[in-house]
Structures are given as C-alpha cells and as structure tokens.
Amino acid sequence: MESTFTKWALGIWTALVIVFLFVPIGIIVIYAFNPSNIQTWPIPGLSTRWFPSAWHNREIRHALWLSVKAALLATGISVTLGTAAAFAVHRFKFFARDAVSFIVVLPIALPGVLTGIALNSFFGFWHVGLSYWTIVIGHATFCIVIVYNNVIARLRRISGSLREASMDLGADTFVTFRRVTLPMLSTALISGALLAFALSLDEVIVTTFTAGAQNTLPLWIFGAIRLGQRLPEVNVVVTVVMLATLIPVILAYRLMNRAPADTGK
Questions:
Q1: What is the mean predicted confidence (pLDDT) over 89-109?
Q2: Are 196 and 143 within 8 A, CB to CB?
Q3: Are 126 and 192 in contact (CB under 8 A)?
Q4: Helices marked H in the chain
Q5: Model's pTM, two decimal places?
Q6: How far is CA 161 from the centre of its chain?
C-alpha cells in the first residue's frame, strides 16, 4: 500500500513540476499568435501578423546574425579545445591531472554572473575592448565543458584494446585515430557541438558582461521585456528561438544515447 501511494505521489509531483515548467512556455507561444499588441487572456483570436513584423525588424535580424556567428565560432573553439583536453586527461598520467579536469569543468559549475564579472575584469585589466570576439571568448569558456564531458565519457567507454589491435596490425597513431577512435567518437563530438551551440545561442548572463555595445538576440529580448517595448515581437522571437534551440538539443540527446557499435565489452 505504501509503495503504491509513493508511486502515485511521485507521479503527481512530477506532473505538477512539468506543468509548472511548460505552461508558461505554452502561454508565450499562444501570445505569439495574438492579433492584438495588448497581452490579455484569453486572446481575442489567432493571427500571424507579428511574424512578418519581427522578421522585417533590422535590429532583430542583426542581433540574430550576431548570436549565430558567435555561437558557431564558440562551438568550433569548444570542440577543438574540449576534445584536446579530454584526450589529455584520459590518455596521459601527469601531475595534477584531477586538478586540470576540475578546472576545465569549473566554468559551468560557477554562477554565470561570477564568470561574467571575472571575464569583464580580465578584459578591462588588459585594456581589451568589449566586442564580438569577447563574446565568443566568454561563450567558449563554458561551452568547452559540454564538449569535454561528452568526449571523455565516450573515451571511457571505448576499450583500449581496439586501439592496440589497430596498431598491432600496422596502423600508426594517426591512422588508428582516423579509422578507429574518431568514428567511435563522432556521435559524442556532434552531440557536444550541438549542445554547445544551443547553450551559446541563448546565453544572457555572461554575454551581458562581455558584449559591450553589441546586442545579441537574448540581450535584445531581455532589453525589450525590461522596457516593456515590442512585446508581441518578443513573443514571436522567443517562440522561434525556443524551437531553434530545441532541435539541436533533441538531436544531441539522441546521439548521446547512441553507443559505439563495439566498445570492446
């Protein structure tokens, strides 16, 4: 009886949490189709009039393009450095290896405001002007962690005997990496890159301290909501960005759960 009650209680609690999280998102999506510029409930009807208005807003398009460019470059840097760090920590034994692993993961564990303030102070100390490049550096600091975690988790699932067998058959280190290791890492790399891109695309806190006069799309949304301006267009932009972010997250989730064909088990 107690077990049944606990199961029902946990199920109800889970349902309430899901409702609490997703009902506000659903309301934003509904408001995106509100024909009126006044947000009242229930909405008087359904219309797509704000979608063309948002698309033709040059400020929104500029902010979107800046966000995409920063996310793409930050993702590329994260894949390169995160993969290198994962290989170094997994393959080699050296002094303070655990400390290095901890330092790599630290930016995602710290509150974003601390990372943002630290980066802002660093750029100010070295007299580096805040620009597109400082946004990319700021995003890369925490996106590296996503790729690092994915790659090192996959490396731990790949048996070292496969690499040894390849080299015993005459393949050198590069050929072994290209034909054995890389194919088994491919889904982890792609999923890490997709998650890093999604995380960079909607980052607000760190961007606030590293953007300067630049305005990414999340910063534009935050400013419009704070000032109470263009709220119908904000609902449209939030809906589109949410859907655009959801796609790589779903793809990454599916790839992360796709194990290598042979891990040596």
A1: 77
A2: yes
A3: no
A4: 2-32, 50-55, 58-91, 97-109, 112-125, 132-157, 160-168, 173-176, 182-201, 205-210, 217-227, 231-256
A5: 0.78
A6: 33
